[in-house]
C-alpha cells in the first residue's frame, strides 16, 4: 500500500562521520527536511521545526536528516556556504547534499521524490515506507501527531540474511 | 502501572446536551484542559492549543474537554460570564464547570487531581488511565507527539455486561 | 483642521485616585485604548500594545488610558469582573468605564466618538485635538511612529486663567 | 552635542543605480541596518524590521539602507551570494557592501562606527548627526517612536555653495 522510499542521492554529508542510508535506518522513523539555505520559509519555520522534532523524539525512535536540495542559485549555495549556514544556525543533525543532476537544475533526490520545492517534510516509517511528503508550512501539532503515530507502529521483524543463514531479529 | 483517572466533578456543562463522563468516553483518548477565563496563560496558549488538538485529531479517536476550574475571583467567573467567554473565543468542545468546594476556594476536580494551577493539560488513554498532568505551557510538537502515541495504542477489549449477559466487544 | 476631542463619559475609574479629564491632560499626547475584557483581539494585541506604549514613552509626554466600552454581554463585564481582569493582566494605567446609555447597548463615549468596535486606538495631540481613531489591529512600528511625531509637536502656549488673571505659561 | 556620522565605506552597492552618500541624503532621517546574510538574528528580526521601517515612513522623510558588514565566513558571503539573498528575501532598499579591511576581518565602516556585531541599527538625523547605534534586537514600538521623533525635527537650513555662490535653501 505504501511504497518503499527510494534511497537518497547524496553527493556529500555534513554532521556525520560516514554517509547514511535509509536501509541502515530501517527500524526507525525517518524525518527528512528538504531545504535550501537561501529559502526564507525553510529558515523561518522548516529548520526550527526540524530541530523541534529532534528535541521531541528519542534518537532510537526517530532519525532527523536534512537534505540540501539546491534548484536555484547553485553557484552560491555550495558546500562551504552550507557549512557556514549549518554552523550559524546550530544544526546538529546530519545533512545530505542532494546530488546535482548532469541534465538540469533539479538535483537527483528531489527529482526522484518529485518534490515541488522547499521546504518539504518527508516521513518514512519503521518499515522504510514513504508516508508523507509535505511541501510548505506544516503545523507543529500535526507533525508531532503524525510522527507520534509512526513511532507507535511496530518495527518490522526483518529476516536478516548473511552468507550462512537467515534469521528473524 | 498507570492509575485510572478519577471522574470529573462537574457542577454543570456547556456545549453538550447531556453531562459527559470519562466512563462513557472509555475507548478514546481524552484531552482535558483545566482553565480559568481570566487566566492570561490559558487565553494566550492553553485555549488555542486545545482548539488545535480538536482540529488535528479525529473525534472518534480523541475527545477534547474544557474544565473551568475556578480557584480565584469566584464571583465574576460565573456561568453567565463563562458562556460569554465560550461564545467570544469560539470554543466548540464541551466544557465542564468544576464543582465548587464547600470548604475552600479549590474546586473538587482540581483538588482530586491535585492540579497546581491553570492551564493544566490532562491526558487520559483509551483504557481510562491518567497519562499526563502538565501545568503551564507545553510545546505543540510534544503534545501532538504524545497524543499521537496514545491514539496508536490499542483500545481495550471491554467486557460489556447488561442484564442478560456479558460480551467482549 | 483637527477637531478637539470630546471629553470621555466615564461612569467610574480604576487605577487612579481621582477621575481624569482630557482637559487636565492638555499638553500631553493621550493614547486611549477602547476595549472590552471579553474581546479576543483586545486581549491578544490591544492590551499588549497599550502596555508597550506605556513602556516606550515618558509619562510626562504621553498619557495612556484604557476605556472599557461594553456594548455586549453587559451583565458579566461589570466593574467587579473588570477589576479582576485588570489585576490578572497587570494593567497599570488608568481605565475609565464608559458610561452606559439609557437608550441602548452602546455606551456614551463610544457613541460620541462613533467607534466601530473594540479594540480602537484613539490618539489626541498636545493641543487636545483628535488625530487618530483606528479600529482593529495596528502595527507597533506605525503606532510608535505616529505617537513619536505627536510627541515632537510643540505643546500649546495656553492661556491659563484663574480667578485673578490669565497668563501664558 | 551629537557627532556628525562618518561616511560609509562601500566597496559596492546593490539596488541602486549609483553609489549613495550620507552627504547627499542630508535633510532626511537615515536608518542603516548593518547585517550579515548568515546571521540568524539579522534574518529573523533585523531585515523584517528594516522592511517595516521602509513601509511605515515616507521616502521623502526617511532613507533606509542595508550595510552588509561581513566579519566572518568572508569567502561565502560574497557579492553573488548577497545578490541571491537580496532577491530571495525581497529586499528593495539599497544595500552597501562594507569595504573589507586589508588588515583584518572587520570591514572599514564597521570599524569606524565601532559596531559590536550584527544586526545593528544606526539612525542619523536630518542634520547628518549620529543619534543611535543599537546592537541586537530592538522593539518595533521603540524604533518607530524614535524615528517618528527624528522625522518631526526640522531639516537644516543648509548653505549650499557652488562655484558661483552660496545660498540658503
UniProtKB/TrEMBL annotation, chains A, B, C, D:
Top-level division of the source organism's lineage: Bacteria
Gene3D superfamilies: Glutaredoxin (3.40.30.10)
Organism of this sequence: Duganella rivi
Thioredoxin domain ranges (all copies): 1-152
Name the UniProt record assigns to this protein: Redoxin domain-containing protein
PROSITE patterns per the UniProt record, alphabetical: THIOREDOXIN_2 (PS51352)
Signal peptide: none
Example GO molecular function: antioxidant activity
PANTHER family, sorted: PROTEIN DIPZ, THIOL:DISULFIDE INTERCHANGE PROTEIN DSBE
UniProt-listed InterPro entries: AhpC/TSA (IPR000866), Thioredoxin-like_sf (IPR036249), Thioredoxin_domain (IPR013766), Thioredoxin_ResA/DsbE_sf (IPR050553)
Amino acid at each position: 500500500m505504501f511504497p518503499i522510499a527510494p534511497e537518497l542521492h547524496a553527493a556529500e554529508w555534513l554532521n556525520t562521520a560516514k554517509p547514511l542510508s535509509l536501509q541502515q535506518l530501517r527500524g526507525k522513523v525517518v524525518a527528512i527536511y528538504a531545504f535550501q539555505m537561501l529559502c526564507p520559509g525553510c529558515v523561518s519555520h522548516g529548520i526550527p521545526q526540524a530541530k523541534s522534532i529532534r528535541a521531541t523524539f528519542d534518537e532510537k525512535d526517530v532519525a532527523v536528516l536534512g537534505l540540501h536540495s539546491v534548484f536555484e542559485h547553485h553557484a552560491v549555495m555550495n558546500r562551504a556556504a552550507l557549512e557556514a549556514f549549518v554552523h550559524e544556525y546550530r544544526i546538529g543533525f546530519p545533512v545530505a547534499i542532494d546530488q546535482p543532476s548532469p541534465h538540469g537544475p533539479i538535483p537527483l533526490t528531489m527529482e526522484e521524490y518529485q518534490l515541488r520545492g522547499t521546504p518539504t517534510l518527508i516521513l518514512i516509517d519503521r518499515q522504510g515506507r514513504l508516508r508523507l511528503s509535505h511541501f510548505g508550512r506544516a503545523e507543529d501539532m500535526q507533525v508531532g501527531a503524525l510522527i507520534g503515530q509512526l513511532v507507535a507502529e511496530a518495527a518490522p521483524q526483518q529476516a536478516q540474511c548473511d552468507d550462512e543463514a537467515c534469521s528473524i531479529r
